């Protein structure tokens, strides 16, 4: 492919010797390399070297829109080659991604009916993980608390009580996503011939799946028997025997959200007033949570800045030509320069101002845009060509309605129950960058205190 990609400019040098040097450089400086490419080639394409292959980066609304419409651009093939899910979770999820349909329809449709359960798990979960005493600040590990709370809340929805509070099951669910992503990253470094051997050493995923099934098996058996009794027929398949297949994203959303809440205290009182006004008057329901525009905006702003350097990976299954004439051959991996897009003040092609002071955290920027334009396109869950947190097109995140509701309910609960702050003398913990992916600081602590009325 190197030869066939000659027409696409390279960031760094493309000589054989240099390309390995650049591939190593990409591991630690990938984020800067993408920003450089974005500045020089916005609206067209450039390529960056990764250890496994060239990655063609695209940007600008037109090319992103082309991805949305490109049938030959496969999300699943790209992801399985990057995260190596065949070696960790197994090939079934790629060949038959039935979980997407489950998330899109029954799970999302049930959010209203299950709202009180979700809220209950949030309250009990935070109560267990953050044991505040009267009038005393306690320091907690942000990532650990976020992981435990998200895991329990999602599992209340997926497997319900009592399993969602079972110690072995919750530990499995917490470790699982880390194993899949971490294991995938390590497997990636080995040549194909060694990958099947390495997988048994570096990941516990197959064993974890077996353990998860031993917990959930009886539950699904009972559910199937119930459906058979009620409908006189067997359900088509034992859906989602393995509910630990969750997405790492909602965990990676709560951690930066807690950092932002602690770092920008000026937003706390206006958000408390909104929660008081709306949930106080209407009660806590899925619909009333939708009305929390300031909280929605705060979370969206947190996600805008938390995004990684590249996302929306696709693999071209056939030669593909973008509408600006750039062609990539079959087999090419592409991705969108996402962080750079979220940091862009002016989209040169449209000459419109996308974001005022994009480097600044402005918690209510989306609520203000929503109010000024009287439109809902600035909601957290809205997809657009310039807000890329949930991707685009056919593969846009089907879990975003659940994630948004979960995060808003968690934020509302935290606001009404606790005071939160950074340790004295500390500023907001920086994101960590690795292979152009951004993740929230893993070690930082924040302080909680029972809120004084
Ligand atoms: C704030 C939290 C979340 C963020 C930021 C997020 C983000 C994303 C992104 C960027 C994609 C890829 C889109 C593309 O390439 O065009 C994606 C796909 C996906 N997400 Fe999420 N997600 C979140 C929460 C969730 C949750 C809670 C679930 C499950 C309940 C979920 C399930 C999925 C699935 C199954 C896909 C693959 C869709 C497909 O193959 O068509 N996500 N998500």
Q: Could you characterize what this model shows?
A:
Helix 6 runs antiparallel to helix 7, helix 6 packs across helix 17 and helix 8 (167-189) runs antiparallel to helix 9. The protein is of the alpha+beta class. It has helices spanning 16-41, 61-69, 75-83, 92-95, 98-109, 115-129, 142-158, 167-189, 195-202, 205-231, 249-263, 268-282, 286-290, 293-306, 338-342, 365-373, 400-417; strands at 45-49, 54-58, 73-74, 138-141, 310-316, 320-321, 327-328, 333-337, 346-347, 352-353, 418-421, 432-434, 437-439, 445-450. The longest helix is centred in the middle third of the chain and has 27 residues, at 205-231. The chain is globular, with a radius of gyration of 23 Å. Strand 1 and strand 2 (54-58) form a beta hairpin. It has a five-stranded mixed beta sheet. The chain has a three-stranded antiparallel beta sheet with strand order 4-14-11. Helix content is 51%, strand content 11%. Mean pLDDT is 85; it is low at 234-247. The site of protoporphyrin IX containing FE has 24 residues, from helix 5, helix 11, strand 5 and helix 17.
């Amino acid at each position: 492919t190197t030869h066939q990609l000659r027409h696409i400019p390279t960031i760094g040098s493309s000589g054989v010797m240099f390309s390995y040097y650049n591939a190593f450089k990409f591991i630690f400086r990938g984020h800067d390399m993408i920003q450089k490419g974005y500045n020089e080639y916005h609206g067209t394409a450039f390529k960056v070297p990764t250890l496994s292959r060239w990655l063609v980066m695209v940007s600008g609304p037109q090319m992103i829109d082309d991805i949305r419409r490109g049938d030959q651009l496969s999300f699943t093939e790209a992801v399985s080659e990057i995260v190596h899910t065949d070696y960790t979770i197994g090939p079934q999820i790629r060949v038959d991604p039935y979980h997407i349909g489950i998330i899109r329809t029954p799970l999302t449709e049930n959010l209203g009916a299950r709202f009180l359960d979700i809220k209950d798990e949030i309250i009990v979960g935070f109560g267990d993980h953050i044991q505040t005493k009267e009038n005393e600040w306690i320091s907690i590990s942000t990532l650990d608390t976020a992981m435990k709370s998200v895991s329990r809340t999602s599992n209340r929805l997926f497997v319900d009580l009592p399993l969602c509070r079972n110690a072995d099951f919750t530990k499995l669910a917490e470790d699982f996503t880390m194993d899949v992503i971490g294991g995938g990253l390590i497997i990636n470094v080995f040549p194909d011939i060694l990958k099947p051997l390495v997988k048994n050493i570096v990941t516990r995923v197959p064993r974890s799946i077996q353990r998860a099934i031993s917990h959930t098996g009886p539950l699904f058996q009972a559910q199937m028997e119930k459906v058979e009794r009620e409908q006189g027929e067997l359900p088509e398949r034992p859906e989602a025997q393995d509910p630990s297949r969750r997405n790492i994203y909602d965990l990676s959303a709560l951690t930066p959200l807690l950092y932002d809440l602690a770092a920008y205290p000026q937003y706390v009182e206006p958000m408390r007033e909104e929660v008081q006004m709306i949930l106080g008057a209407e009660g806590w329901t899925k619909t009333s949570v939708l009305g929390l525009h300031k909280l929605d905006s705060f979370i969206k702003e947190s996600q805008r800045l938390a995004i990684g350097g590249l996302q929306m990976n696709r693999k071209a299954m056939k030669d593909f030509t973008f509408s600006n004439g750039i062609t990539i051959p079959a087999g090419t991996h592409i991705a969108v320069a996402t962080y750079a897009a979220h940091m862009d003040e002016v989209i040169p092609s449209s000459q419109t101002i996308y974001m005022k002071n994009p480097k600044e955290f402005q918690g209510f920027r989306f609520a203000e845009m929503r109010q000024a334009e009287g439109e809902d396109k600035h909601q957290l869950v809205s997809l657009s060509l310039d807000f890329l947190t949930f991707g685009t097109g056919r593969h846009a995140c089907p879990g975003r309605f659940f994630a948004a509701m979960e995060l808003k309910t968690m934020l509302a609960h935290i606001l009404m129950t606790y005071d939160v702050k950074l340790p004295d003398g500390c500023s907001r913990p920086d994101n960590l960058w690795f292979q152009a992916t951004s993740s929230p600081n893993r070690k930082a602590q924040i302080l909680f205190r029972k809120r004084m009325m």
